[in-house]
Design a protein that fits this description.
alpha/beta, nine-stranded mixed beta sheet, homodimer, four-stranded mixed beta sheet, 305 residues
């Protein structure tokens, strides 16, 4: 089945201890859609300016991503993010955010995208996320990602979005902030009470936790000796996760766990290079191999006394 | 087979958001030995003062821990640690450390303890750890734990100890400090080059990583909604780990992985109460149940594209 990804399409200028890129393809929609495209058919909805490089659109075409939902505002400039990382790659330092065409963005969801069975709401203004939910038929599975900025500034709108979704994706700091507790188990329980089917808490290099009413799953990150640029890791995880689910025969606990592993593997590729350089060129065998290694890293026989 | 645990026996005064204890049983040797005693016969070597409560010695007796190697310095006072935790339980704040009888401690390893097949060198001065290694016949497996204080102050002696052991146990900050890198994979590789068989990096609530030349294993922490007092979690992990190995038929990769899980389960009990209150009264079925839950939290079917 197909996935609709709504989010930002950005031109990122990023510096890390391992190099710099200028106006590289970025944004939650770009990372999540390219990641999902390795598993299922994908459509995207977003906005770019007249300056958005044709090569970036070609990259989506190469991944067979449907861009009918991408509005091109010829008179405007594309959303831009400029930032850097120091040796502690867990911390992004923002130097500049230019909303540009994103400031007046109203998502258009042309048919048949409004009937997509799997919907990923990337990290954008909760008002826009609500707007998207209004424009589509209730999907089989809707997932929402967000960030501290919206938790601080638009918490009530964000809560409305969360209540209408099946899965919420947060990092550990965001979960603690949103639920006002240091304990992630307590935070997840609170969120599940809102009616969510699953809560996923991303912990960067420490992997992630997936909570549901009756189950709990914990996955490590894929161990890497070199992380070149962590930008987009969370969005890539989200895309791999929902893409895998869209390809699954049955949405049971096992499928959700496999989806977490698929997302984890995809995120590990993203951070090995700048922008989407690595994940836009992946072969299926590379993904399978990394999932298999995650399996080997975690299995153990039952312990009996 | 039997385990010898050498380390500190302490009287801890600890305050956390959930309460306070005064002069409670603590120290690396206490936590590790009681933890190990759930899996294998255990002996301990350490020193206490004339003020060491008889009830604490009785606790060891109840766990069938051999205390022949415990020197009682009637004229002195027991080693004391006083500290507190705030809501972020990952950070211990030390208010006072009184070495007392520990200042002049020279480990005595009376026979047959000097022929113990499994040896755990708890976090004490590396000079004392070396001294212990001089006094014992080369064990089947020697494991060393340490802390940032010795990495800063006695790095060359510590490196001598590490070179003579099979396994080193560090937390993530210590591994980064000792190997001068932010990347834990890189740190572990460096340490393995010293001739160690295994490197275990503890990450508190994020679980732990076990590295060997050909394998890599990652285990989550046991999820808890309430942590009352994190004191001793690392030592409890170490004790459960080496205790499990001493009970294993074969020291293969599976046994080491099961040992990590056993240590993880034990540590999760320790932090649920102050001092050794929880782990001194555990039933085998409780330990098995928690190991089984860790198994359920981590397993997933292989992912194929």
């Amino acid at each position: 089945m197909s996935v609709l990804v709504v989010g930002s399409l950005a031109l990122d200028t990023v510096r890390t201890p391992f190099g710099t890129v200028t106006d590289a393809l970025g944004g939650s929609c770009a990372y999540a859609s390219v990641s999902a495209s390795h598993f299922a058919p994908v459509s995207i909805a977003g906005v770019v300016g007249g300056d958005f490089p044709k090569d970036h659109m070609k990259l989506f075409a190469r991944r067979h991503i449907d861009t009918k939902g991408v509005e091109v505002d010829q008179s405007g400039r594309t959303f831009r993010w400029r930032g850097y990382y120091e040796y502690d790659m867990n911390q992004a330092h923002t130097l500049e955010t230019q909303l540009n065409v994103f400031a007046a963005f109203k998502p258009k969801i042309p048919p048949p995208l409004d009937r997509s069975p799997f919907v990923m709401l990337g990290n954008i203004d909760p008002d826009l996320q609500l707007d998207v939910l209004e424009r589509i038929r209730k999907p089989r599975l809707a997932m929402v990602d967000t960030m501290n900025y919206w938790i601080e500034g638009k918490q009530s709108q964000l809560m409305k979005v969360i209540r209408r979704c099946d899965i919420v994706l947060l990092n550990d700091a965001e979960a603690r902030m949103l639920c006002d507790t240091v304990n992630l188990q307590v935070a997840a329980k609170q969120l599940l009470k809102l009616g969510l089917k699953r809560v996923i808490i991303k912990k960067g290099e420490h992997g992630c936790l997936m909570f549901s009413k009756n189950d709990f799953f914990t996955a490590p990150a894929f161990p890497l000796e070199l992380v070149k640029d962590p930008t987009g890791a969370g969005d890539t995880f989200a895309g791999g996760f929902i893409g895998y689910l869209a390809s699954a025969k049955k949405l049971d606990e096992n499928a959700f766990r496999q989806a977490v592993i698929a997302g984890t593997a995809m995120a590990s590729f993203t951070v090995e290079d700048f922008s989407l350089n690595r994940i836009s060129r992946l072969r299926p065998a590379e993904i399978t191999a990394r999932c298999r290694r995650l399996h080997r890293h975690t299995r153990f026989p039952e312990v009996k006394l």
